[in-house]
Amino acid sequence: MHILFSHKNFPAQFGHIAGYLIKDHGFQCSFVSELPPGNFDGIERIQYKIAGGATKSTHYCSRTFENAVWHSHAVYEAMKARPDIKPDLIVGHSGFGSTLWLADLYPDTPMINYFEYYYRSKGSDLDFRPDFPVKELDVLRSRTRNAMILCDLQACTRGYCPTGYQRSLFPDEYQPKLEAIFDGIDTSIWHRKADVPRQIAGHAIPEGKKIVTYVSRGFESMRGFDVFMKVAKKICDARDDVVFLCVGSDRVCYGGDLNRIQEKSYREHILSQDNYDLSRFIFTGRVEPHELVNVFSLSDLHIYLTVPFVLSWSLMNSLACGCTVLGSATAPVKEMIRHGENGLLADFFDVDGLTGLALQVIDDPEKHRYLGQAGAKMIEESYSLKKMLPKMLDLYERTLAKG
What we know:
By secondary structure, the chain is α/β, with parallel strands linked by helices. It folds into 2 domains: about 1-185 and about 385-400, Rossmann fold; about 200-385, Rossmann fold, CATH 3.40.50.2000. Helices cover about 35% and strands about 20% of the residues. The chain has an 8-stranded mixed sheet, with helices on both faces. Strands 13-12-11-14-15-16 form a 6-stranded parallel sheet, sandwiched between helices. The longest helix has 18 residues, at about 65-80. The protein is globular.
């Protein structure tokens, strides 16, 4: 059985399932991506090269689709040049548009698409924050950003989304094609460690200091960095024994933060808005997974905030590591955290409410440790690789049977 995976990056969401299929079930797996060709743990990586893309002259509302078309064409040409590869099943990430024309190259081959998000102008990330008025052109673009996603929904045999919330965003007529299957957490890596040295990214944290953690790929408003800093300021004002360990980089992965500010980074912009005692904050930059496990293992309280959007892996990893998590009561977070059972929730904009809950945990971290233990148990029982990989294989087998 030969599975062809397609994603601009490698291994992206498909590394674990590909390894599982090869090692445990004798499948053959190929992977077409933008990265150079090679063979990695039994997976042949085939490179595609895009020959163009959207420019400033391309209409703002159609640039996403234009780029997706170029990726689709490049993938098509790369696989057309490999007639020796005859996949039994195609699995690819929708949104980048990389699988669309594989339906024409392999007309009899069933296809599964991974769908992360369906854009909407109302009741979504776009209009969630009233402090950031939505530009008219962004409202219009929210429809056309779904163009390639809709093409993929039409072309695929089946599809899946990582969470129920994300699946719920897609049009009713496509719901029968979609399932909610999370990628899976490798709990052999993501688990709480004892006796972790109190030193992260070259910074020593003195004994007796409580540690509050915040993790995001980029420090940005979509992940509530500004709200977190307001909460941190109030915690600093209330206590002098708390250190804030902030993992992430000065980039904006989502949204238009950089269009609203003069500073070079959103973090710089937020820090200029108030008088923060930066001696209490450790900004680590990006860290490797093993060090992030240490961060979570040291954490007395982990704060995770997001607007209604794609759920971050960092939340799931923090839960797996037994963190006491304080999250925003937004739809994607409420799917994972039940207030008072496996974490704590407060309104995204309620700085005082978030601060009050944070101080309760910081006052007695051990008293609240049961929340983190319940979170780790939930991940192990419902979202770990050992639970998710068989579900993914079942999806593949059902799709193959249908195809």
